[in-house]
Automatic annotation (TrEMBL):
Family the entry assigns: Belongs to the cytochrome P450 family.
Annotated Gene3D superfamilies: Cytochrome P450
Molecular function in Gene Ontology: heme binding; iron ion binding; steroid 17-alpha-monooxygenase activity
Protein name, as recorded: Steroid 17-alpha-hydroxylase/17,20 lyase-like
Amino acid sequence: MAAFKQQLPLFKTGDFTGFLVAVLAVLVVCVSRKRRRTGLAFPPGPPAWPLLGHLPLLGGRPHVRFSEWSRRYGPVLGVRLGPRQVVVLNDFESAREALVTKAEVFSSRPDLYLMRLFSNGGKVCWKAQRRVTDRALRRLGIGKVTFEGKVMREVDDLVSTMSDQHGGAFDPKYHVGVAVLNIICSLVFGEHFNHDDPLFLKLFDAFEDISHYGGSTKHLNIFPALRHVPVLNTGAVRTMAAVKKGREFISTMIGQHKATFDPSNIRDFIDAYLLAISKETDENSSSSPKKGENFLNEDELRQDIFDLFIAGTESTTTTILWALLLLSVHPEIQTKVQEELDSALGPYRDASVLDRPSLPYTEATILEVLRFRPTPFGLPHATTADTTLGGLEIPAETQVIINRWALSMDDRKWSHPDRFDPGRFLDPEGHLDVPVYFRPFLMGRRACVGAHLAKMELLLFLTSILRRFTIKPPEGAPAQSLDGHLGIILQPPSFQICAVPR
């Protein structure tokens, strides 16, 4: 029993005996539900436990365990998480087949408790939402020089804060987090907040709580009835409160924008979305609606903003933190980046997105951070019909997970994948050479909508920091583990650095 308990890292709070009683009660309900019979075979996987499936076998690093299993059972891996059958894709070929070749079948989302929580209990018209989001971001200059000023304002604030440490040890997590959050605020609300602004701190605390507690509620996707069990629902209660707080802030900002909206003066993402709603409303009022057509509304605007904050803050913040940690323990790589920056930019000028062609090693280092410590899973997909993948049959309504960790650590694609080596993204002449199978923001219809913004942020933050400082671990600090811990995404351990002025 003790050994079994140690294998259940998803459940870290509460009495274990009470947990088992609760799970068994929930399973009675789960297994009694009417099950769809398809007659289709399911992709292979290791033997599973009764009722709990593969949960007791996952350990604390399920992305690594799935990758290990795929070497034996194949890249299209069939597992069972409690009563749910799940397919895990562990190589580039199967991921591309699902997300690109058969996108029509694999672009749905499963009906999971956490996804309902984050989508306010309903489903959005994601195709219409994606269309207007892409247009709005392009209009606002995301990824282009025109948006650099808003990013550099936050970069400069972060550099100033790091300079105030005078080379002493500090934890960069909060300072990086508020800088990245403020960029999304500038994009969405058209407003830069002082870091001590009570409204801004309220928003920051809400998304910090979502990040902290959201990862501890994954078991509710498997056994949603546990949200009613005291102690076991603590993370869910805190997450729900944080989601509500974030949505209230967003609703307030939308209301302010509606009161001052001028279609001839689009200030930010909310204005761009309101303009799209207005145009579509006018078009639909003068023509007959088409069957199955998706229409925009304020609920979808609210959800889209919430999604932008979730996707655009934690992932970018975490990648910057991983970069700082990795560069602090690989000073030889950091020195090469600094030498390239000094040579390409001279003694005074900051980098711009226009400088990318002159910074191949810097670009390669950023790509290697994204490969070496990726977001392991991202949001799950679901099939809309019976289909096949890699010659294996997959029933309709099957949850599908892309194991990005496995794609990044595939030794058939990468030489020594467990080694941090930016040189793998350079050709023999030192030019940037990105293989087609490296897709850190995935691909297909559901590829990350904020990829261009994330790339800009990573370039401007890291180049500005390394132009001014050498990042070192504190004197006498023990060696840092680079395994990370899996919450909503793979986060680095708590660490301190010294930003020594150059």
